[in-house]
Amino acid sequence: MKKYFSLISIILMLLLMACGSSDVEETETDDSVPVDNSTEESPEPENANEEETQSETEALSAIMENLDLKVAAEQQGTTINFKLQLINKNEEAVDLMFTSGQQFEIKLFQEDEVFYQYSEGKMFTEALVEESLAPGEFKNWAESWDMIEHLEPGEYEVEMTLLPAEINGQQVEGEPLKQTITITIEDPAADEDSPFRSVDVEGENGEYTVTGEVDTSVGVTYYEVEDGHNYLVEQTEIPVEGDGWQEFEIKISIDEDMLPQNGAVVMLLYTEDRSEQRPVQLEVMP
C-alpha cells in the first residue's frame, strides 16, 4: 500500500512540475509588444500662438483703418477751443476701453517748447471708462484753454491724441489715434478792433453753420471759403441788417467730392476793401 501511495505522489509531483514548466515557457516565448492604451493629445504646433497673435493684430489693424479721427483748434480771443471727433466707419460696433478718466491728450507747442499740455496738473479717476460706437456713429471730445500768458502771435503745432488702452478687447500698442495740426495765434488785443467777433463754427463733412457778430459801421462785409488751393465758395455778402453790432448766421454746403483729402477748409470774413480780414477754420481733413 505504501508503495502505491508513493507512486501516486510521484505522479502528482511530475504533473505539477509539467504545468509550471508550461506556464514559464509560455511566458518566456510570448514576445508580443505591450500596447499602450493611454490617450495623449497631439502637441500644438509651436507657431500656433504666433499665428493667433498675428491674426488678432491684423483684425485690430483693419478696425483702426476704419476709425476716422478729426481734430480742430480755434482761437477765440484769449481762449483756444480744441475738438476731437472719432467716427466709426466699420460695419460693426467698436468698443473703446480707457484705463482712467483721461481719454485724450492735447499739446500745443512751437519747435521744442510746450506751452500747453492738457494733462499737466490734473488728477484723473483710475476707474475704467468704456465707450461704444455703433456703425456710422461718432463721439466728440472738447476742451478749452484760457491762455494765462498771451502767446506771441504766430504759428503753433497742436497734437491731439485719443488714449484707448483696448479696442474690442484687444490691446492697443502705441498711439495710433493721433493728429497734429497747425494753428495761427493772433494778438487777442487786435480782435477788439476787428469788425468780427464771437465767431463760432458747427458741422462737418461740407455742412457748416457759422455764427457771430459783425460791426455794420464798416460797411458791406463778405465771406468766401477755400482750401488753400481752390475756392469752394466764391465771394458772398454776409447777411445782416441794422446798424452797429449785428448777429449773423451763415450756412455753408459743399459737395463732399470738392472737399480736400488732406488740409483745412477755411472761411475768410473781410471788409469790402479787405483791410480787415478774419480767417475761420471750418474743418481739418486728415
UniProtKB/TrEMBL annotation:
Origin superkingdom: Bacteria
Residues spanning the signal sequence: 1-24
Residue segments, region Disordered: 25-58
Biased composition (Acidic residues): 25-55
InterPro entries in alphabetical order: Intracell_prot_inh_BsuPI, IPI
Intracellular proteinase inhibitor BsuPI domain: residues covered: 67-163
Alphabetic keyword roster: Signal
One protein family per Pfam: BsuPI
Protein name listed in UniProt: Intracellular proteinase inhibitor BsuPI domain-containing protein
UniProt lineage: Bacteria, Bacillati, Bacillota, Bacilli, Bacillales
